[in-house]
Amino acid sequence: MELMYPIVIIVCLVTSIILFFVKLNNKGKYTEGKRVANTKFIKETQYYKDKMKRYNILSNTIKILSVMCIIVTGVLIARPVTVQERGDDKYNRDIIIGLDISLSECDVNLELVKKFKEIIPNIEGDRIGIVLFNTAPIVYSPLTDDYDYINECLDNIEKQMQIVVNNGGEIPWITAYEDRPRRC
Questions:
Q1: pLDDT tens, 4-50?
Q2: Domains in the chain and their CATH numbers?
Q3: Which of 64, 109, 118, 127 has a beta carbon 3.0–4.6 Å from 143's, enabling a disulfide?
Q4: pLDDT, tens digit, for every residue of 91-102?
């Protein structure tokens, strides 16, 4: 930890020492109010001695707390900072995978998904998102750095694309329902 303005600490220490020894311990003569005669008897009573002892304890406590407040304030004004240099060579990027999910593009998309699944373990610190489109774009996965979730999404896409490729470029459930008669 470093201080931006270390001179402030020195100034505060000198100020607090001067205040403590000069101003706060000033036991000057009592100049205001009415004087009372024959106070010697009162000063010898136990009650007066207890009250003076308590007064001196509280007075010294306030003096010590005042000096501590000045020092703490000086430390805060000196602005303690931590200087740390980073040598990050990472480039945080946002990567969006855009896949055209037309039936004619399934072979290409399947290869793209497989290649991208190989690349993901080498990516660190980048956010990845997946957008699927045919006639309108659909955000399949928003930008995230949760690579397990992205791998799960890519596995799901790969499985669906593989079904279409294995079925000769057609979606199986569409051909299954074409043979049934339609109801009105």
A1: 888 888 888 888 778 777 765 555 555 676 777 778 888 889 999 99
A2: 2-23+41-81 (no CATH), 94-171 (3.40.50.410)
A3: 127
A4: 678 888 888 888
